[in-house]
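Long-time lurker, first post.

We've been arguing in lab meeting about whether 2-acetamido-2-deoxy-beta-D-glucopyranose would sit comfortably in this protein at all. Half the group thinks yes, half thinks no, and nobody has a model to point at. So I'm putting the question to the forum: if I give you the sequence and the SMILES, can you give me back a predicted structure of the complex? Inputs are below. Any interpretation is welcome too.
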Amino acid sequence: MTQVGGVQALCLGLTLQLIVASILRQGAATVAPPLTGQTTAAPHKEPGKPVTGSYRLSGSNGTACLLASMGLQLNMTFSSVSQNKTVQDVVNLQPNVTRVSGSCGSDSAALLLTADAGKTNLSFHFTLNATSSKYHLSELTLSALWPDMKEAFSAGNSSLDYLRGTSGRSYKCNEEQTFYVTSNLSINTFQVQVQPFGLTGEQFGTAEECQLDEDDMLIPIIVGAALAGLVLIVLLAYLIGRKRSQAGYQTI
Ligand SMILES: *[C@@H]1O[C@H](CO)[C@@H](O)[C@H](O)[C@H]1NC(C)=O
Ligand SMILES: *[C@@H]1O[C@H](CO)[C@@H](O)[C@H](O)[C@H]1NC(C)=O
Ligand SMILES: *[C@@H]1O[C@H](CO)[C@@H](O)[C@H](O)[C@H]1NC(C)=O
Ligand SMILES: *[C@@H]1O[C@H](CO)[C@@H](O)[C@H](O)[C@H]1NC(C)=O
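Top reply:
Settle the argument with this. Predicted structure of the protein with 2-acetamido-2-deoxy-beta-D-glucopyranose, as tokens:
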């Protein structure tokens, strides 16, 4: 009986640890970002999560040829006039003051976002490999001219490989992602869904979820399995215990 009890306690301990760990992880994922935005005495005020913007480009026949829904945060390093030094600034792109333009081609598409009346220009270039029907974000460029900038900011990289998807389907990622562009610029994305190729209407095609989201969906499955395992172990321990005590009575 004590042996069974030991195994039982061990399994219970492990399971509880698993559950607590995953709850903590989920809590950290959902609670931490707003907290860091408010409480820490960081040199720069973090802007918090950006508002999700919806962007649409239409082809020559007027129907959608590129759809994108995402929250964007620019992380830039530039020379500040007011502070008279190089600073690093994190700014959210505000969808309500952002205009969209661009072009759709058979194997390339460009989405240009112009914010703050032309003071911030961000462009996304997507490339489609016709052989494999796979697309990806191949180029990002940002030019900005803000009042506090000593000179116009300009950064771009045309050898990127982000937002990988299949033509006719959309790429989706709810978790935050960081796209490294250059040493002066990275872009954080939140709740992304994009489809630059193969749209057949005004709706996104079937979503291909990113790995980060799939990992998140695994947590409830693991917790569920752990609980089921726990129930099974308790049940087994009970049955074995009962059998032993019955056997014990018989020998008397
Ligand atoms: C901005 O970029 C810097 C350096 O690349 C990094 O240390 C910092 O964590 C980034 N901040 C955010 C909010 O992404
Ligand atoms: C397109 O995909 C095919 C098959 O995966 C690959 O062999 C080819 O190198 C790719 N082309 C380009 C330009 O990346
Ligand atoms: C952004 O694009 C607009 C239109 O092409 C242009 O007039 C403006 O100067 C650009 N802004 C920057 C900061 O490059
Ligand atoms: C452009 O992006 C690639 C892939 O992330 C990286 O290896 C390269 O260093 C970047 N180029 C510049 C100029 O930062």
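For your lab meeting: The radius of gyration is 26 Å. The pocket of 2-acetamido-2-deoxy-beta-D-glucopyranose (ligand 1) is lined by residues 46, 75, 88, 90, 186, 188 (CB under 6 Å). Whichever side wins, do check it experimentally.
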